[in-house]
Design a protein that fits this description.
With 186 residues, the chain is an all-alpha fold. Helix 3 runs antiparallel to helix 7, helix 4 crosses helix 8 and helix 7 crosses helix 8.
Amino acid sequence: MKIATKYIVVLGLLVSLVSCQENSRPNYQYMPNMYEPIGYETYQESDAFPNGKQGQLPAEGSIPRGDFMPFEIDNTVEGFTFAKANLTNPIDAADIDYDRGGELYGIYCGICHGNKGDGKGKLVSREKILGVPSYADVGRAITTGSIYHTLYYGKNTMGSYANQLNEEERWQVVAYVEKLKADLEK
């Protein structure tokens, strides 16, 4: 009997503790700085930083981390025309790896342009994208520079691949596209 009484008393205490809790009132904050941080305005005057401002500009001429290199030719019609006429592949002919270029082409380009460059990729055959011409089309007159410019900036419905392919990989794909174009024109 005494054991049952103990259980009833403990149960009564638990019920009273739970029933007294107010969820509308906030709990205690043990470390309020973690909940209410001090906000700093960007570029505000502050003595916490060497130049007196919180945000600091990158050094002039610096390049963002990764393999990104700026492209000097603009994303304009004039820039495209200039690239088409003047841009050449900086990779030596002996260093061009058609296997690697073909692999990258298959990953990024083949889905629309087709594995042979005939403009009959899976998305075109399923009519998800229309109007992808063949590399052998006479009206296109693609060159090394126009291919690279298009890979870098994109054109029409084709987006840019500057973030997916580094500079060397883009040139490998350019060489592979030129090979496909030559094979189609035979």
